[in-house]
Amino acid sequence: MKTEKQKKLAAAGWKIGNAEEFLELSEAEAAYIAMKLSVGQQIRELRKANAMTQAELAKRVRSSQSRIAKMETGDPSISLDLLIRTVLALGATQDQVAEYLMHRCAS
After folding, report:
1. SS3 string of 11-79?
2. What are 12-26's pLDDT values in tens digits?
3. Mean pLDDT on 73-88
4. Each residue of 19-36: b (16+ CB within 10 Å) or e?
5. Beta carbons of 76 and 104 less than 8 angstroms apart
6. DSSP letter for each residue of 80-99
7. For residue 88, with 0-12 CB atoms within 10 Å meaning exposed, 13-18 middle and 19 or more buried, which class applies?
8. What pTM does this model have?
9. Bigger pLDDT: 88 or 100?
10. Are 56 and 89 a contacting pair, CB within 8 Å?
């Protein structure tokens, strides 16, 4: 957001912040969410790079197409365990998974 707009909003009584502040997340909670989002984005990218549909990937990991869609969009009901198992099923190495977990997602 532009500085000028932030000043106008602040002058009108609005509080400027980010999602972590709004939701009062701890550093650990924010990091956990960022990890899940990062792995979900990698699942989408790897699936597309392998020219797979969500349904094909779901069959490979013994899940459903709707769960794959939820993984790719960061649904909080998806466990980190399932995300990691899925990205490994797409051919990612353990080192790549570690990189995905360390990557901070753009919010």
Report:
1. HCCCCCCCHHHHCCCCHHHHHHHHHHHHHHHHHHHHHHHCCCCHHHHHHHCCCCHHHHHHHHHCCCCCC
2. 888 777 777 777 888
3. 93
4. ebeeeeeeeeebeebbbb
5. no
6. HHHHHHHHHHTT--HHHHHH
7. middle
8. 0.75
9. 88
10. no
Q: What is the DSSP letter of 5?
A: H
According to DSSP, residue 107 is labeled: -
Structure tokens at 61: 């990991």
At residue 1, the pLDDT reads 67
Q: What is the mean pLDDT of residues 35-62?
A: 95
Q: CA of 90: how far to CAs of 1, 15, 16, 62, 82, in Å? A: 37, 42, 40, 13, 12
Average pLDDT score, the chain: 88
